[in-house]
User: What shape does this take?
Amino acid sequence: MKKFQLVTLPGDGIGTEVVEGALKVLKDACSRYDIKLEVQEFPFGGRSFDQHGTPATDDTIEACKASDAVLLGAVGGEKWDHLTGADRPESGLLRLRSELGVFANFRPVRVYPELAHASTLKPEVISGVDILIVRELTGGIYFGKPRETNRSVPDPYSFDTMRYHKSEIVRVAEKAFEAAIRRDGRVCSVDKANVLESSRFWRDTVVEFAGSYSGVELQHMLVDNCAMQLIRHPKQFDVILTSNLFGDILSDEAAMLTGSIGMLPSASIGNGPGVYEPVHGSAPDIAGQDKANPLATIASTALLCRYSLNLEQVARDIEQAIEGTLAAGYRTGDIYTGDDKETLTGTMEMCDRVLDALENVEKPETA
Ligand code: NAD
Assistant: This one.
């Protein structure tokens, strides 16, 4: 029997609800292949601040480092909005990402046929979209030094620094190429090489790296064109590889193709345990009401299986169960349109319906 160690950090608000439900699905999906998960849960974010005076204790961080993967809900809420600096719930997130050295952020954007109507774009443009955005997460202009604002000169100025070392580009490119191999085998590297020195270096480095890699088709696109193409013809993309700043903007743009924040999973990956979490926040407006859509977190557990546990078949089963649940018409409030073929469900019932759908997913004979 294979065994893995997981840490769950449900966090605040709907984080606790969606992680509880998603964990049930993940455990069930693993048990079909005799895989056991040993799970340790820790308070995180606001809840950790209330109990321990910090959003992430050293014990929590150490347990995450010692685990195979971390499943996170969401942090924050009005109760902690008055906190500043390292006490703020999101500081716990930043610390976790930095201590685990997760330098690549994966944001899959997948439009399920049943939800194509939820997008502001035409169904024929977005139906079948399946993009993976791989964003560099720990370098570039968000962290580059020097950065300065000088207001004490006659014409005040301010600047940031977009700096990338070759090693930083190579390691994230490697993650994108590895992911592309498991998908359609195409990487589109996005930069601003017509204007920025750091983008020309990014492009040269990706080209050199690609030379050592076979089986992946590499294309380059300028970020302004990519922003347009995501709206005009999003189906052309497989994996998009890009820097921290461009990825931040493009991943939010691409996310809106799906129409609902409750459907978007994410993974932050380095060379140790990865962090898997829904893209949405703690949604205080619906917390504790059994209204949250758990599918983003359930889809995050599929990514956890694929990228941290190397359990591709379990990942596919979970994704197929999500598809089956949507195809059967089950919807939480955020994706419910009132159509006769739809059944409105709460958070926990949605998880139970995914568990039912999982039973109907056939196991391959070779598994
Ligand atoms: P949010 O994502 O929590 O909510 C935005 C809107 O989307 C709300 O109307 C909410 O009800 C809805 N929504 C979000 N997730 C949903 C789901 N799974 N199902 C159904 N509806 C869903 O963003 P916000 O309101 O800007 O932030 C609320 C709190 O969350 C803040 O404290 C913010 O700092 C925090 N936050 C945390 C993270 C994180 O932990 N990674 C990310 C974003 C925001």
